[in-house]
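Let's inspect one such protein example.
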Amino acid sequence: MKLLAEIVGAEHVLTDPDLTASYETDWTGRFRGSAACVVRPGTTDEVAAVVRACAAEGQRITVQGGNTGLVGGSVPAGGEVLLSLTRLNLLGEVDPASSQVTAGAGVTLAVLQGRARDAGFDFGVDLAARDSATVGGLVATNAGGIRVLRYGSMGHQVVGLTAVLADGSVISRMAGLEKDGTGYDLLSLLAGSEGTLAVVTEARLRLVPRYRARAVALLAMDSTASAVAVLPGLRAALPSLAAAELFYAPGLALVRKHGGLAAPFPVEHPAYLLVECADLVDPTAQLVEAVQTAEGLVDARIADDAAGQRALWAYRETHTESIGAEGVPVKLDVSVPVSSLPALVDRLEPTIKAVCSGARAIVFGHVNEGNLHVNVLDTGELHEEVTDAVLQLVAALEGSISSEHGVGRAKVPWLGLSRSPAEIEAMRAIKRALDPTGLLNPGVLFP
């Protein structure tokens, strides 16, 4: 502890349980652990020195950003030094020539978005936890969010990284080169590695144009199949399409209950599709025309003003907090081929009920990516059995057990459903090469 205090300052080494408690419990309340201490470095050099000190003592490290993860990947299993990166919050000025900006790992998504928008740009990733989620965590999990349809996941925004390896050495490629054919793409390797290969301390990020003219539509559909089938036509007719989000009546009921929201339509419908267009000129007329011919459309609401758009988005974006207000759910983030999405939705409830008859499934997600967030309430002691049943179903549909939240600790037992033995051994080989003693994020991705 003394050496760590010399590196980062005594005030940034926390051991008091009252001060460490918030770092040792994840956002969902499901995952808890105990840290030897919480260390809060303020620079890459301090991160490197902390890692070297821990490596010399064989002390394992859990890396944490904004602690908004949902799979237990940033909570200590027990006895690790918890390395909090929230003080790495330097944010550079936007470079308009390259449409890029440099951000420390502790910069929150909301702050990054604000800097980009002030300069006339925007950032390609957005998600509901924007006020807490940090750049480092977004890179580590290759986060997705609501704009993947248009811009891709976090890894697509990364054009440079600085990271500390498990021996304390630093690798840095921050020139922001859009083309670089000099060997292995380490940037892509670290994006999505969940802190198991290196500690990302800063990133050079690609920005996108800012489109101020927006239109949002909430479409009531007669089935999941219709919501899936309508999307290719919308994409063809609407080059400005930026988001397509799917949710259902049970989730709508919860957000109305806990958010005090009015019913969007006079009656309930089998499925709801929220779409947003963003362009340089008002896309409302094109959106109206496109949805008028949508097969399976039962009703629609369209908003072209900011207040109306926020009101429609609230039906989707308040799902997570409304579910949390009901209890601690089993949270699963899965994806299947888009054509299999209706089958997944149809089979989910009977699959869950067969294991736990009193469970309630609240489902929402990103329809373009075949990505559903499956939240199961009231599972009692059967959370492992419910998880297994859902993930086995997803695997039977050739899907992934983790679409955008990562594997963390929560899904380690089921990694073999999505990755072959050869793939897992290849990943282990990479881990052994970069972190031979298993110093970084033990128990994440691998047992």
